[in-house]
Fold each of these.
Amino acid sequence: MNSQQTLRQRGFTLLELLTVIATIAILASLLFPVLGKAKTKAQRTSCLSNLRQLSVAWMLYADDNHGFLPESYPLNNPEVWVQGDMTKADEAGNADLIRAGKLFVYNTSLGIYHCPADQGVTIDAKVVPTVRSYSMNCFMGGRDPSIGVIPVTARDFVPFYAKDSEIAEPSQLWVMLDEDERSINDGFFLSDPTGQVWMDLPAMSSHRHDWSFTLNFGDGHSSVWRFADQRSFQVKLARTEQPGNTDLARLAAATVARK
């Protein structure tokens, strides 16, 4: 037997090579979904941790201020919990606006303001990374009553909670949530308490926790809420009317109490 024959016998045939490639492809197709789910779970866990830490800061602020809650109304308000508008290119990545918020002194980690699954906002057809992914319930924190009812659908509801003692069931009302990049701007999340309209949007997409969002509550606990109503998967823009949507109704019920 000559050396060329020996080399040919030791090498792979084309059929063997194709079999190996096919096997690798099959294994990859099986592994990628598993790895994707693991990544999603890790991001969701991190997001929950962020909101728990923000809950602690929120409660510490109230403890230091005789029960008064950090404010959420953002316009011309130095007392707001966080500053910055994520739709403005010069503010979306400005960490100083996080530092200027009333909660920052209680936890100086910038990372707890950003969801790891948040890919950024689109400004002038470009995706811009943001420093913040979370917004606060528009009913949390006092404001000048002369501003009027916000939103206009809230006339039969408590106008706002200025102090922690005013929240009768803190475990049932949310404080902050993971907001969708298609609606996030300031730190003031508009929610329709009548459950008719998605005014602002909680994170609602496959890349943000696989069609779920995180939120924290007045007693300090955080949770993951998964979308179940098929209409939720069709929402593309803020101000989408969907009366009867069970996901929308669930969020509305946990937003504010009736008068």
Amino acid sequence: MLTPNDPTDAHWRVVPLPTLSDARKDWLTRGGSLTAHLRTLGAVTVEVTREAVDMPWRDEARALRITPRTPVWVREVALKVDGVPFVVAHSIVALAHSTGVWQSMRRLRTRPLAELLYSDSSVSRSALASSRITARHPLYRLASAQMEGGHALVARRSVFKRHGAPLMVTECMLDALWTRLAASHAPSHREHARAYDHLSSHAKRVAHGEAK
């Protein structure tokens, strides 16, 4: 049974799906600020795509133990690395808390939410939960606006609490992130392949008595 402000449910799990790649498992479970992790890959900018009063998604309402018609303040952004969207994020907080405990969330503009979440010792964080996101989930529509493609994506979410007020953050990783990570490892893979070819060639020469 869900406890209040628990990001896990039948579809969102603490342990990533075993079929996911090591890179996906790594990024879905990394603690700390995702923005800070992205900065290791390049210059990060925040594009705010929507800030508005809305209703929570069905799975968000279940996790926060609120009714689906409870008004919430929504902030949606695209996190870009060197101008390319790598992550889309969807954050919600009860409307009353958005003008109280979490009022700073409304004044962020293009600054990352991480500035609020990791600079205040009174903020606690739940465990991270991850899920595969298909076209049936509303988060997929946000991701589709920033990329092309029609396959499943992966996302993670957690609940931050400040003075008892929960704020849920859901982050969906886009294909550009995995492409960049693969490219960053490509040189080492090529070097390994060249070293292997050299050793293979040397072994053949030894077998034919050509190597000195």
Amino acid sequence: MIGRWARLGGTLVPVFLAACGPLVRPYYNRDAGGYIMPDPSLTPTPLVPSALKGRSTGADGLRKAAEAYLGVPYRFGGQSRSGFDCSGFIRQVFAETHGLDLPHSSAAMYGRGESVSRADLKTGDVVFFKSLGFVDHAGIYMGGGYFIHSATSVGVAYSALDAPYFGSHYAGARRLLSAP
């Protein structure tokens, strides 16, 4: 959660907004006897994972457009090169590559397209995550167990679907495009 301030009747009050994805932070591991940092290969990274380098997917235009934004910072409500939130990033990539006009809300996107099982994910499917019972984050699946998204911690980056946070908060996937 990210704290913001809003005016309510002339008084400033804190407003807590759900952010896109987790901040990378230590987590408690009982077996280790304390807090540990997640494996660096499973945290958001602005680098293309080695498993995806040189790999053709049939959705290379979408991948190229998405990767052109790697490293662009996170900005709540953003949809431009100066900053993206998760749904703004997805909206921009799908508008550029396929002319789709998607809503600027991951929860609203979750109601679009056809449902896809985790075992049947294809490059270009949109993966969704939830916390507190609500879909609050999304990214574009790129194959090999990785998706690209705008994370609060690093901006547009790749993450592994089975990273500790994402694996436990996975809500489902939707196919917005016909399979290549």
